[in-house]
Amino acid sequence: MIVVHHLEHSRSQRILWLLEELELPYEIVRYARDPMTRLAPPELKAVHPLGKSPVIVDDGVTVAESAAIMEYVLERHGNGRLRPKPGTPEWTLYVQWMHFSEGSAMLPLLLKLYVGLLGEAGAPLNWRIDSEIDNHFSFMEAHFQKHAWACGAEMTAADLQLSFPLEAGAARGGAERYPALMAYLGRLQARPAYQRALERGGPYQLLR
Question: Pick from 25, 29, 43, 201: most CB atoms within 10 A?
Answer without folding.
Answer: 201
